[in-house]
Amino acid sequence: MIREVTNWKIGEWIDFHIFRPDEKKGYIIYISGRPDFRMTASEKEEKVNQSKKVPVCIGHDRQSQNKKYWLYKDRLYWEIDNLEPQDMKLLLDERIEKRNRKLEKLKLTDTASENEIKREAISDEVKMYVWKRDGGGCVECGSKINLEFDHIIPVSMGGSNTARNIQLLCEECNRKKGGNLV
After folding, report:
1. Which residue range(s) make up the domain with 62?
2. Rounded to an integer, what distance in angstroms lies between the CA atom of residue 107 and that of residue 101?
3. Which whole-number Å values give the CA distances from 15 to 2, 26, 49, 112, 127, in the listed order?
4. For residue range 63-90, what is the model confidence (pLDDT) as tens digits?
5. Which residue in 21, 54, 16 sits closest to 38, CA to CA?
6. How many Cβ atoms sit within 10 Å of the Cβ of residue 55?
7. Cα–Cα distance between 112 and 123 in angstroms, integer?
């Protein structure tokens, strides 16, 4: 099981000599506001640079030694399956690719919906006129049940909501016609 840690940050640790006497400052990774992993400036630089290409294990959870934390492409993940770096890379790359495909699909859907023709309701005046003109029955088969107002030229093809472009069709005839002109 792999999970992304969303509430983490790297903070600077000043007067770090208690932890490593040879370093005056270092860095600490905070998870959920709690200081969890400490490292020197050189360790941080090395791990961050290395994590751009492969996942880097930064340590184990103090309370649960079986939970490992990994830094990869500016994101932090944890897992409990004791995976090797190459296995983490494969799984995380798959996850990232899946997320990217989903985002692209959503962007395409969003663009398509912005470009859709906004369909306005047929006015009551037009409906009354068409009902009287077509005698309250389907213009194809004459049925008087399950009647629908149909666009002769579909809205998707530039058809309007005027009486000249609206006709009465029963449900069955309207389904047969579909989005076609005939």
Report:
1. 2-113
2. 10
3. 35, 8, 24, 56, 80
4. 777 899 999 999 999 999 989 999 999 9
5. 16
6. 27
7. 27
d(CA 137, CA 150): 12
Is residue 41 within 8 Å of residue 26, measured between CB atoms?
yes
Picking from 81, 113, 145, the residue at the C-terminal end of a domain is 113
- Residue 128 three-state SS: helix
Taking the C-alpha atoms of residue 162 and residue 182, their distance in angstroms, rounded to an integer, is 18
Token pair in block for residue 4: 């992304």
Helix (H, G, I), strand (E, B) or coil at 57: strand
pTM value is 0.55
Structure tokens at 168: 């009465």
Q: Which residue is it, tokens 């934390």?
A: 69
Residues 68 and 106 in one domain: yes
